[in-house]
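just leaving the lab so this will be short. below you get a single protein, a line of residues and a line of whole numbers that encode the local backbone shape. id like you to explain what the token line says about the fold, in plain words if possible. thanks a lot i owe you, the record is right below:

…
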Amino acid sequence: MAKAKILTAVLHKEDNIYVAECPEVGTFSQGRTIEEAVNNLKEATELYLEEFPLETESKSIITTFEVAPVAEA
């Protein structure tokens, strides 16, 4: 049996839904709650990986950065 992979889910809210992305694979999904969005992303990613398996093991690096304030018009 193959070992389970740990992947990253990045979420943001758009209006009344949460959008979830898996940056290692490039899959996206959405849901009304965070849990629903992540579950939908898991399903979408598993279906994608059945057709297009990951060829290399990679670990995402998540960080933050600061941008300069934007002048108000």
